[in-house]
């Protein structure tokens, strides 16, 4: 379980490190005004970047348990932990509604 958290943290750090370079290379590849041979060179440089530095490889995980499904983007908690913490009044501003 905690191995998945470490792996996700490693991927996030790699993404943060190479994000600017990746975006620049993608923008240069998508422009139509450059020479095709130069474009191939940019594609090769993009392919040489680590795979785990891509945004696609990131997965939202619960910051407490590492659960990969049922995650709220706002709190970064799984639905189970969110409910548990809300019922014990450990999340400020969240109250159970009843009508």
Mean pLDDT: 89
Estimate the global geometry from the Cα principal axes.
elongated
Low-confidence stretches: none
Number of strands: 0
N-to-C span:
39 Å
Overall structural domain count: 2
Put simply, the count of helices is 3
Task: Note the beta-strand portion.
Answer: under 5%
Description of the molecule:
The protein has two domains: 1-59, no CATH class; 60-99, Ribosomal Protein S14/S29 (30s Ribosomal Protein S14, Chain N, Irregular), CATH 4.10.830. By secondary structure, the protein is mainly α. The mean pLDDT is 89. Helix 1 runs antiparallel to helix 2. The chain contains three helices and no strands. The chain has helices at residues 2-30, 36-48, 79-87. The radius of gyration is 20 Å and the shape is elongated.
SSE topology:
Elements: H1 2-30, H2 36-48, H3 79-87
Helix pairs in contact: 1-2
What can be said about this structure in brief?
This protein has 99 residues and is mainly α. The protein has three helices and no strands. It folds into two domains: 1-59, no CATH class; 60-99, 30s Ribosomal Protein S14, Chain N (Irregular), CATH 4.10.830.10.
